[in-house]
């Protein structure tokens, strides 16, 4: 008999599934979930087996639906993640995160001499690689690897 | 081949493919020695937020050789920028006066931002350590003019870490299947990021701390800046080791050409200037026809 993971179902909230292995804590960071977080249930599962992707992480959050920019940020560190919105204990909406070819806003260029750090303008990056993420600033042309991206969240 | 450069910005060598680069170089060759008033009645805005001698003068000469006029500044301390005006606002003002804008700025990406703000064509004359595309074009022009081709063996020597000209040039040479030797003092090597890019393009790259001049058809020397070194003794040592003298030329190929983006500070002994290998002053002169071609193409007075 295979081992079952017992995780309490949530009634209202969001299940972020198919998070790339090891990225659950970064997803929490993006969502601002720290020990000061309000007293709603947050369940984190890491390295659980998945028929689709081998191993994956899962984050379940009671009483919260994600905002657009939060979903965008998750797509940067976990391009295969799915967002399930739960109401009355059932999935009412399931969507994949989507990472555009050109990323506008969301992250700031890590180059301290990039003009976008000094002018009132929207940052723009070409997505050169999706997993792990590699961005190239369309202004200063410098590359941002995953680590530099995560450091901003 | 028909190519439309009208209204196009010249920001980064990365924006151009091989055919487009060759087209610009062909146009430059046609322009060399020419003085047709193709740009009569047109005004170029030269916005030099950072000092420059060669680039600013050669743009100015290029515009005047085409019969056009020039306005601008070469010291941003004398302008509204000191009052805190944004780059976008400066550009939006200048574009109302001019037909084309050339920008040099210390911040990377400044020219791209200027191009976004402007409806007139913008040419990048250097955005900090990032790009300087007309320099790269004139380097390529010189190599092609001297050797007749671009798929040659090129050695880039000097400060390959901070020197923006060598990053763009290496990228362009990789487009043309050149074989590239990278020779630099320890600590001033080509950034790993650039090498990764070049290799992804299929470039043949050799990295070394020591020059083997016999391999090169083109030796491109760049300045090693004193401020890159913690103490002057270390700097003196490195400077000595990477200085080109008559002695260094013993093993050189007959057809070797030596280039340098200038200014030089003792990287090439002046005794080399008189040899057939020295082409750095021809190179600097080539800045004019190349910039004439770029100005004429983006304003659409030639196609």
TL;DR?
Chain A is α+β, with helices and mostly antiparallel strands. Helix content of chain A is 14%, strand content 35%. Helices cover 36% and strands 15% of the residues of chain B.
Query: What summary fits the major beta sheet of chain B?
Result: 5 strands, parallel
| CATH class division of the largest domain in chain A | Alpha Beta
Global shape of chain B: globular
Reported for the largest beta sheet of chain A, the result is:
5 strands, antiparallel
Distance separating the two termini of chain A: 40 Å
The residue-averaged pLDDT of chain A reads: 91
At CATH level 2, the architecture of the largest domain in chain A is 2-Layer Sandwich
Instruction: Give the spatial strand order of the biggest sheet of chain B.
Output: 7-6-5-8-9
Instruction: Give the percentage of residues in beta strands of chain B.
Output: 5-15%
Rg of chain A (CA only): 17 Å
Helix content of chain A: 10-25%
Strand content of chain A: 35-45%
- N-to-C order of helices and strands of chain B: HEHEHEHEHEHEHEEHEHH
Structural class of chain B: alpha/beta
Helix % of chain B is 25-40%
Low-confidence stretches of chain B are: none
| Number of DSSP helical runs of chain A | 3
């Amino acid at each position: 008999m295979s081992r079952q993971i017992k995780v309490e179902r949530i009634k209202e909230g969001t299940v972020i599934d198919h998070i790339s292995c090891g990225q659950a804590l970064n997803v929490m960071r993006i969502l601002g979930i720290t020990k000061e977080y309000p007293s709603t249930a947050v369940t984190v599962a890491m390295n659980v087996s998945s028929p689709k992707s081998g191993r994956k992480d899962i984050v379940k959050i009671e009483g919260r639906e994600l905002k657009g920019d939060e979903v965008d940020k998750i797509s940067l560190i976990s391009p295969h993640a799915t967002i399930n919105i739960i109401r009355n204990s059932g999935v009412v909406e399931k969507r994949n995160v989507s990472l555009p070819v050109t990323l506008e806003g969301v992250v700031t260029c890590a180059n301290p001499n990039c003009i976008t750090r000094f002018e009132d303008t929207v940052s723009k990056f070409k997505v050169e690689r999706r997993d792990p993420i590699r961005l190239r600033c369309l202004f200063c042309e410098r590359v941002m690897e995953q680590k530099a991206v995560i450091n901003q969240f | 081949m028909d190519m439309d450069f009208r209204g196009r910005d010249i920001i980064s060598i990365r924006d151009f493919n091989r055919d487009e680069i060759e087209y610009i170089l062909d146009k430059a060759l046609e322009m060399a020695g020419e003085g047709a008033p193709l740009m009569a009645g047109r005004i170029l805005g030269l916005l030099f937020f950072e000092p420059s001698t060669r680039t600013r003068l050669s743009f100015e000469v290029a515009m005047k050789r085409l019969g056009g006029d020039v306005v601008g500044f070469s010291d941003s301390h004398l302008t509204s920028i000191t009052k805190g005006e944004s780059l976008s606002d400066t550009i939006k003002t200048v574009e109302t006066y001019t037909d084309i804008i050339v920008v040099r700025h210390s911040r990377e990406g400044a020219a791209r931002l200027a191009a976004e703000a402007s409806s007139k064509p913008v040419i990048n004359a250097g955005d900090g350590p990032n790009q300087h595309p007309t320099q790269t074009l004139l380097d390529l022009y010189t190599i092609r003019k001297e050797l007749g081709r671009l798929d040659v063996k090129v050695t880039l020597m000097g400060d390959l870490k901070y020197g923006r000209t060598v990053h763009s040039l290496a990228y362009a040479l990789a487009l043309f299947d050149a074989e590239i030797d990278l020779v630099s003092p320890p600590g001033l090597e080509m950034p790993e990021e650039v090498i990764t890019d070049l290799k992804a393009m299929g470039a043949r790259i050799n990295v070394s701390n020591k020059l083997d001049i016999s391999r090169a058809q083109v030796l491109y020397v760049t300045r090693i800046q004193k401020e890159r070194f913690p103490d002057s003794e270390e700097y003196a040592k490195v400077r000595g080791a990477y200085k080109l003298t008559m002695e260094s030329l013993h093993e050189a190929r007959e057809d070797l050409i030596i280039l340098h983006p200038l200014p030089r500070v003792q990287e090439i002994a002046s005794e080399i200037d008189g040899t057939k290998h020295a082409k750095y002053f021809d190179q600097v002169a080539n800045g004019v026809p190349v910039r004439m071609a770029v100005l004429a193409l983006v304003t659409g007075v030639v196609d």
